[in-house]
């Protein structure tokens, strides 16, 4: 396994990344792809293609702010899953960024793979925070690499606020997803 990370804009695999993004996340959880690309031009946003040699295995989209990294999107191509790539990438991310938070759709019986997804993150360095939010009608659970890290409303609001320095883009972001963070039980 020879993992390397390539900036989306320098990559020859843009179509593959868009396909992985569309296939990996439900429409209710996705920003429009053009918006991700636009925000990825910011210095604090990382949008990478993940490669094993020259084979595309996945993508990552991170926002760095307030001494943390928000792992907004992370996906391994479905043809490359269960080969250890996801665990290896998360290990690299944790070594590089230390404090990472993410939100996953709250596990429920009727959501196939939701428990498996959560368990995958728990096995690979993330911890439960007992923080749950609703964003645009979808319930999410917040996980963090630091066990006792204080997850606040402001910290979560900043994940969208820091996606772009453009007032127009920030406005469009708020029209796409609800940034009024309210914790639920």
Would you tell me the overall average pLDDT?
93
**If classified by CATH, what would the architecture be?**
3-Layer(aba) Sandwich
| Helix percent band | 25-40%
Low-confidence stretches: none
CATH class: Alpha Beta
How far apart the termini lie comes to 41 Å
Number of strands: 8
Based on CA atoms alone, the radius of gyration comes out at 16 Å
Can you characterise this structure?
- The protein has about 180 residues and is an alpha+beta fold.
- It has a single domain, classed as Gcn5-related N-acetyltransferase (GNAT) (Aminopeptidase, 3-Layer(aba) Sandwich), CATH 3.40.630.
- The protein has helices at about 15-25, 35-40, 85-95, 115-125, 155-160, 165-175; strands at about 5, 45-50, 55-65, 70-75, 100-105, 125-135, 140-145, 185.
- Strands 1-2-3-4-5-7-6-8 form an eight-stranded mixed beta sheet, sandwiched between helices.
- A hairpin with a 2-residue loop joins strand 2 and strand 3.
- The N and C termini lie far apart (about 40 Å).
- The model has no long low-confidence stretch (mean pLDDT about 95).
């Amino acid at each position: 396994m020879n993992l390397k990370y390539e900036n989306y804009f320098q990559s020859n695999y843009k179509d593959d990344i868009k396909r992985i993004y569309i296939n990996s996340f439900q429409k209710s959880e996705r920003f429009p792809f053009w918006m991700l690309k636009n925000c990825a031009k910011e210095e604090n946003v990382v949008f990478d293609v993940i490669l094993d040699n020259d084979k595309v295995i996945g993508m990552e989209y991170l926002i760095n702010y307030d001494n943390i990294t928000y792992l907004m999107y992370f996906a391994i191509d479905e043809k490359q899953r269960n080969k250890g790539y996801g665990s290896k990438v998360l290990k690299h991310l944790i070594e590089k960024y230390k404090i990472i938070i993410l939100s996953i759709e709250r596990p429920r019986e009727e959501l196939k793979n939701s428990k498996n997804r959560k368990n995958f993150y728990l096995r690979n360095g993330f911890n439960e925070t007992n923080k749950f939010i609703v964003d645009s009608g979808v319930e999410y659970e917040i996980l963090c690499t630091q066990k006792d890290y204080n997850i606040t409303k402001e910290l979560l609001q900043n994940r969208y606020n820091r996606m772009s320095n453009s007032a127009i883009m920030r406005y469009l972001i708020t029209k796409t997803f609800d940034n009024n963070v309210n914790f639920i039980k």
